[in-house]
Amino acid sequence: MDHQYFPHRHISDLERLFKAKNTALIRLKTIGFDCPYISSSKTYEQLYLDEVQKDFNFNELDFLREGILYIFECLKMIENEVAVDDKYSADLVLKECGDVVLRMMKSNNFKEGDDVAFLSQVWQQKNKKDNDIKSDSIYALSRELAEFKVRLSRLGIETVIRNDEIEFLDLRFPIPEPTFDMIDIEPIDTAEPETENPFPEIFMDFDAYTLFNRWHSVFQNSKTKLADYSFIYRIMESEGLILESKPLRFQKWLNGEPYKADIEDMFKTYDNCKTEHKVSLYQMLKTIR
Fold first, then answer.
1. pLDDT (tens digit, 9 = 90+) per residue, 29-58?
2. Which of 84, 190, 260, 275 has its CA 20 to 30 A from that of 132?
3. Furthest CA-CA distance within the chain
4. How, if at all, do strands 165-170 and 157-162 pair?
């Protein structure tokens, strides 16, 4: 391999990034969240290829916009995680290392204060490890967010993030309308995009159907499907966006074509499936136009 074109430093950077992405995914899982837009073993191109193989009509613009919203929420979750207070951390160390301390105190070489010094050392190591994990997670999510932002800008959509809010600016040039000077050119198709609600008995309108689809694209492979789909049903039904008021009927419909959610247990109540992160993500998905 010619290292002039692929220097070893770049290999090391990639290795660090993939390790950090794995750390971030583990960290997110511990707080009950998955992030389908990043992978610890695949690049963006490989993830995108997987989606295209599932659906040849897959829209990269939607994938990038939804990915930016989702990764941004994950990044905020990690950044805003409440640190474990010193007392709880010390109690945790004592619980885990109590047997070691007892053996130490029975030793002939034990000196007063050895137990405190040992526990303090373990506590500091745990805190450092936790801070390192958080730092690596923030690094990985920030890099992924930047990559999605750059890729979306290449497609003509600029991402503006200010005050914890995201706005997408369409900078693509509009297609000119046909003029009399263009009579030898085939007319431009100005038909409106498809906006018909395919399930009028389920959703209030096409926008409600689209919102549910966005949620489904994020959570279709989630390991907490019951809670995730319970939440979207409960909140959309309460807002009048889902018309089916019987949870069992909606669940039966959801388990059929085209979603095949395969959820057997009864939907949870809103209070038992609501989280701050889900509410925030739901509000973000509603802003996409």
1. 887 777 888 888 888 888 888 888 888 787
2. 275
3. 102
4. antiparallel
